[in-house]
Automatic annotation (TrEMBL):
Gene3D superfamilies associated with the record: Formate dehydrogenase/DMSO reductase domain
Species assigned in the record: Candidatus Desulfatibia vada
Localization per Swiss-Prot or TrEMBL: Cell membrane
Top-rank lineage group of the source organism: Bacteria
Similarity comment: family membership: Belongs to the NrfD family.
Database matches in Pfam families: NrfD
Membrane spanning residue stretches: 21-46, 66-86, 98-117, 137-158, 200-219, 239-261, 282-303, 323-343, 350-373, 393-416
Main location: membrane
Keywords: Cell membrane, Membrane, Transmembrane, Transmembrane helix
Name under which the protein is recorded: Polysulfide reductase NrfD
Keyword presence, Transmembrane helix: yes
Cellular compartments per GO CC: plasma membrane
Topology relative to the membrane: Multi-pass membrane protein
InterPro entries, A to Z: Electron_transfer_protein, NrfD-like
Length: 425
């Protein structure tokens, strides 16, 4: 058994010997995870105060990281649902990779907020035992639980045929593992026929989309109902969250899939290349709409007395550099012409650069959104300050490192390739 596992690992490593970038990539990710482990250990020894918790700035970087990841997961779910839920068959190519990314981003988003809570097990227990149907936070947690279940089943249905093929081609332990993952024993049963029906995948995908959008909208409403924080309060963010989730989903798929092909030095299939440029055009359109939303938010805020001072934190205050450079320039304005130029020149690298810029800009946007609204509370004692500690940065870096490491392992061992699934109609 051990020899068979060693043989399989040797085959994998031999395939990657020609890519030193792979070893560098994995080493960086492992280092990030190790540093996060150290930060987490220190928090257990010295308490969560090392993460710079404050009575004024209660929701900090771990919360903004959570918002970024769960919004990204919803966006990925939106994009992948275009294929097997809404019948746009060309988008079935990105289904497996997109759904897997949606699954791991929501999981690591939950890990991030769990570390912020300190005792997440209490939240899970009391969420089930003492439900509060009037609480947006309760609904958000419950809906995200259903979403994780549906998105997990959705990926399994998408990958099952490929898992069965791998089980048939493999030997020994590997054959057994893939056989169990695919539940091959169900093929001769009535349930096996149901699993092959495309309608089941469509129903599960629709359930994942509805639960994800509902949870996502509840997340926006959670912020929008906080009247004491003028920057959050109102109906703007529940709507904008859906828009930003959409361009996040396209940016994630473009950046990660193109980056994977380049890292593995594989040629992108022609059919998927055409879809990449189509998604790049859609991303440019969504960014343009997002820019209009931002202009509206800032303009409306300047003419609303209670929002003026929080808005000025972005326009010419301590958050102005992050806002103008990252959120506006890097995250929105510059990617639009780069994407359009890349589409016109059929330049894959340009799409990779622009989509990566969008993700960087959106990450800073989430940080600004969460932290800035708490910097100007309705109190008379002046503005509190907040700066992430090294331990907090270490932990967040480790969460992102673990996410990308999980994706890397998934790209090696699981079916993620761009191909149409084989379910019957």
């Amino acid at each position: 058994m051990i020899n068979q596992i060693k043989k399989h690992l040797d085959l994998i490593l031999n395939d990657m010997e020609r890519s030193p970038a792979f070893y560098i990539w994995v080493s960086i990710l492992l280092s990030m995870v190790a540093v996060a482990g150290y930060a987490l250990l220190m928090s257990l020894i010295y308490s969560l105060e090392i993460f710079e918790f404050s009575i004024h700035v209660i929701w900090v970087t771990m919360v903004s990281n959570y918002v970024f990841l769960v919004v990204s997961s919803t966006g990925l779910c939106i994009v992948t649902s275009l294929g097997h839920v809404f019948g746009m068959q060309r988008y079935e190519l990105v289904a497996k990779r997109g759904v897997f990314l949606a699954l791991i981003t929501i999981i690591f988003g939950m890990i991030s907020i769990g570390a912020h809570l300190g005792h997440p097990e209490r939240a899970m227990v009391f969420n089930a035992l003492t439900p509060n149907f009037y609480s947006a936070m309760w609904w958000m947690g419950t809906l995200y639980t259903f979403y994780i279940v549906f998105i997990s089943v959705e990926y399994w249905l998408l990958a099952r045929d490929e898992l069965k093929k791998r089980a048939e081609q493999a030997e020994g332990v590997e054959r057994t593992i893939f056989g169990y993952l695919a539940l091959k024993k169900l093929d001769d049963s009535r349930l096996g026929a149901v699993l092959k029906d495309h309608k089941l995948l469509q129903a599960v995908g629709a359930a994942a989309l509805v639960s994800g959008l509902s949870a996502h909208n509840t997340l926006g409403a959670l912020f929008g109902h906080i009247e004491a924080r003028p920057l959050w309060y109102g109906s703007y963010y529940p709507v904008y969250f859906l828009l930003s989730a959409s361009f996040c989903g396209f940016a994630w798929l473009l950046a990660v899939s193109i980056g994977t092909y380049k890292l593995k030095r594989e040629e992108i299939p022609e059919e998927y290349t055409s879809l990449i440029f189509e998604m790049a055009q859609v991303l440019a359109l969504l960014l343009s709409v997002g820019l209009l939303f931002t202009v509206y938010k800032m303009g409306f805020g300047l003419f609303t007395p209670i929002k003026v001072k929080p808005i000025m934190l972005f326009l010419k205050g301590p958050f102005s550099l992050a806002f103008w450079l990252f959120e506006i320039a890097i995250g929105t304005v510059l990617p639009i012409p780069i994407l359009l130029y890349a589409v016109g020149r059929r330049n894959i690298t340009g799409v990779l650069v622009a989509s990566s810029m969008v993700l960087v800009g959106v990450y800073v946007m989430r940080y600004d959104f969460v932290v800035a609204a708490q910097i100007y509370p309705v109190i008379k004692n002046g503005l509190p300050s907040y700066l992430p500690t090294f331990m907090e940065v270490f932990f967040i870096g480790g969460v992102l490192g673990a996410l990308f490491l999980t994706y890397t392992l998934g790209a090696i061992f699981l079916p993620l390739k761009e191909e149409r699934h084989g379910h019957t109609a």
